[in-house]
Amino acid sequence: MGRISTFRSYQFVLLLAATLAVVAFYYFGSERHNFSSTTKRIKQTQASSNRNDADLTVDTRIQLAESGDRDLGAGSEGFGLRVGDMTTVDQRYHALMMFTKVDRSRSLQDKFRVAMLSMVKHGRFLEGEVLVLHFVSDQASQELGQRMLQEFLQDASFEYEIFFHDVVELTHELFPIVEAMQKHFSAGSGAYYSDSIFFLSVAMHHIMPESLTRIVQLDLDLKYRTNIRDLFQEFDRFPPGAVMGIAREMQPVYRHTFWQYRKENPNTRVGEPPPDGLPGFNSGVMLLDLSSMRASALYNQLLKPDNVAKLADQYRFRGHLGDQDFFTMIGMEHPELFHSLACGWNRQLCTWWRDHGYGDVFQLYYRCDGPVYIYHGNCNSPIPDD
């Protein structure tokens, strides 16, 4: 009986040790890997896919980013899928998308699918380059986004990293900077664009760490028809003093919004169509040179509440499209701050204003000659099939 008792005690100790080991694995593992449940599947996918001669012997796990230049402040959670030799990584291309309330909207989920799959389809980067995708998100949307990205990025031929930024914490940081302009460029209290987060691009140079010098901000309702890496080459075309690359608005929205100023100044170019007019900007695709934004005394002066109010009064301006309105207004006064992207980099498809009083002039704004690199299905417009 004594031997049996001793044996059972020994079994109990082994069982307890095994249980504690399992608990420790899941507890500590969950602290390091949000994507850990799919690691095996991703490794299998990578092993069977063509990765443009990447070294697939490396452990391709989604993991916490560890490099110092990826310290993106409070509210940021980063993960990266590594393909190839990590020691060769020397250049990152940063792109940011707003990803809030996606869990509640099938339409946004469908748009995100189109955007990511087309980005992956055409995306090509050189050895040692990484596409870093930033998503500003609420918790529920982040959880959904992580699951969706596992599917959408599984055929990517390039290295990438993923960061999720907490929308509440970013909004808290932004509010003191952009509070004054919200009353000029928001649709009203509680409206979609009245939230401070939709002025993120205006003050991103204050929010992101100084180690982050360039970033592209992209809407979700895009479809890529070319390598997104080519978009980043537009930074090299910025004229001296420019802080941002952005395409013109392709509807007569600012012909309408500046109606009072245009009435008082009948010879103005404000709100007139291209090529000689100033039709305003569309914020669906933006290249933000954060270093230049930090260094530009002019741009930072324009962010001050008194100067925002002065320009809004001068142009009799009251908008509802957030950062797009702010950039349009200061662009009327200081076009030297902007590098004008070809319309093909943000080929907007919305035709709402054609049927709301501007049919006679609509085509003057909507026309876009030359190749289309990115379709923008704004105002829920259908995007052409390939």
TrEMBL record:
GO molecular function, one term: xylosyl alpha-1,3-xylosyltransferase activity
Cellular-component GO terms for this entry: endoplasmic reticulum membrane
GO biological process, one term: protein O-linked glycosylation via N-acetyl-galactosamine
Signal peptide interval: none
Domain of life: Eukaryota
Transmembrane domains' residue ranges: 12-29
UniProt keywords, alphabetically: Membrane, Transmembrane, Transmembrane helix
Protein's recorded name: Xyloside xylosyltransferase 1
Origin species: Austrofundulus limnaeus
Gene that this sequence comes from: xxylt1
